[in-house]
Amino acid sequence: MTRTRPPALAVGIVSLEFAAAVSTFVASTLLPAVVRDLDARRSVELLISGATLGLFVALPLASRTLDRIGARGTLAVGMVAYLAGTVTAATARVAWVFAAGQFVSGCASGLLAVFGISAAIRHLDDQWRVRVIAASSAMWILPALVGPAATLALEHLVGWRWTLLVPVPVVFAGRVLVLRAAGNGPPRRERQRPLWRTLLVPLGVSAVVLGDRWWVKALGVAVACVGVASIMPAAR
């Protein structure tokens, strides 16, 4: 197993989080241009919810993936899915294809985010861990401040399709740094909660986001609450 190098691992984890933040703000900022280009005024909810639903689906699956195939396999799956989803969205000609690409890239972003936090917990001491988690949280602030203006300027120069691909090199750089610093590591074998319980959360969120009747949304809230209650640790 490769010896852990805290500075390189920290930079890699923060880079992955920064890329996830940039991807989120780039996609949301480009939404008006996407709606106009794809003539998707009646499918705005679908375009908005794709990445979010992918994130909710990925969160309960991420720990299982890491346990079964280890760090290298998890990063490989996350990178392939992220690239495939981003390219699919960038080349979409209809709304549902764009939403599907965003869904896949959202799944990948959730997988990489959980991996980053897991790597910080497993390979960094307390001092480094606190710094990395704080820096990862801060990575969502900078893109929120300068991201929309920069995204619109880039979209004006090269179009929304190429602009959507901007975060890809940062994700690849973060992946390389994490793997070189932390190594592969054996898959873990930890007890997991039943999968159907964890999937109640994304199922409920999907009903809230995509439902067109009030009772569907209400049912989605109830299902999501049941899912959250079922996966929360028992009180002691």
Compact description:
It is built from eleven helices and no strands. It is an all-alpha fold. It folds into two domains: 6-190, MFS general substrate transporter like domains (Growth Hormone, Chain: A, Up-down Bundle), CATH 1.20.1250; 193-236.
Question: How would you characterize the overall build of this protein?
Answer:
- Helix content is 81%, strand content 0%.
- By secondary structure, it is mostly helical.
- The protein has 2 domains: 185 residues, Growth Hormone, Chain: A, CATH 1.20.1250.20; 44 residues.
- The N and C termini lie far apart (37 Å).
- The model has no long low-confidence stretch (mean pLDDT 77).
